[in-house]
Each structure stands twice: as C-alpha cells, then as structure tokens.
C-alpha cells in the first residue's frame, strides 16, 4: 500500500514537472499550450480515478476476505467450544451418577448402623429392666 502511494506521488510530481517544462519550451501558441495542458490534466485526472478505483477495489476485496476468515474462525471456535461443553456435561453426568451411588451406599450403611445401634440399645435396655426387676423382687 505504501509502495503504490509513493509511486502515485512520483507520477504526480513527474506530471507537474513535465507540464511546467512543456510550457517553458513550447514553440506553440498559447492556445495550443492551454489545450495540451488541459489534455495533460485530463490524463492525470483519469489516472488518479483509475488508481482510486483499483485501491478501493483492493481494499474491498481485502475486507471481504478478512470478514470471511473471521467468520470461519468464529465458526470453528464455536464448534470447538460446543464440543468441549458436551464433553464437560458428559463428565459431570458420570460424576453425578457416581456420587448418587456413593450416597445411596452411605445411606444404606448408615441405616444398618442405626439399626444395629437401636438393637444394642434395646438389648441394653431389656437387660437393665431384667436386672432392675430382679433386684426389686
């Protein structure tokens, strides 16, 4: 982009110098000189317009390509993130099932310990009643 800008500047400088020298050394009449200057100005204007269109077109194409690249990368990123989210959810679901099984086992163990403790308490209580009952007799 900078190279085309310096080329353009060199072209304008060359055109201005050429027009100035042409006027100084022109063996033609003023009318012909003005006509040539007008033609030269017209060519310069046409060249400027052409370069403007080319630069504009190049920028437009680069912007479209950048947009396309961005959309493609975004799609890949979203797809990857979705895949990873699915993996995480699956992992969490497996962990939840494992925790449910552990909790169920823990609850069963706790109930059986509770039942054993209740049986021991009843046994101790019944022995205590028998002992207090026989002592009272």
List keywords for this structure.
137 residues; mainly alpha; 2 helices
Walk me through the topology.
Blueprint: H1 2-25, H2 30-136
Helix pairs in contact: 1-2
Structure description:
The protein is an all-alpha fold and 137 residues long. It has one domain. 96% of the residues lie in helices and 0% in strands. The longest helix is centred in the middle third of the chain and has 107 residues. The mean pLDDT is 80.
Question: Could you give a short description of this structure?
Answer:
The chain has 137 residues and is an all-alpha fold. The chain has helices at residues 2-25, 30-136. The model has no long low-confidence stretch (mean pLDDT 80).
Shape: rod-shaped
**Low-confidence runs (pLDDT<50, min 5 residues)?**
none
Mean pLDDT, to the nearest integer, reads 80
- In angstroms, what separates the terminal alpha carbons? 117 Å
């Amino acid at each position: 982009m900078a190279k085309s800008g310096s080329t353009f500047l060199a072209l304008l400088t060359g055109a201005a110098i050429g027009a100035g020298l042409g006027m100084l050394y022109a063996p033609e009449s003023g009318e012909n000189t003005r006509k040539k200057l007008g033609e030269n100005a017209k060519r310069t204007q046409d060249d400027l317009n052409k370069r403007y269109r080319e630069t504009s077109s190049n920028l437009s194409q680069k912007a479209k390509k950048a947009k396309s690249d961005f959309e493609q990368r975004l799609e890949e990123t979203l797809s990857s993130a979705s895949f990873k989210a699915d993996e995480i959810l699956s992992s969490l679901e497996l962990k939840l099932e494992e925790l449910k099984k552990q909790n169920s086992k823990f609850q069963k163990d706790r109930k059986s310990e509770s039942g054993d403790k209740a049986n021991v308490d009843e046994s101790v209580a019944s022995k205590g009643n028998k002992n207090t009952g026989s002592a009272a007799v």
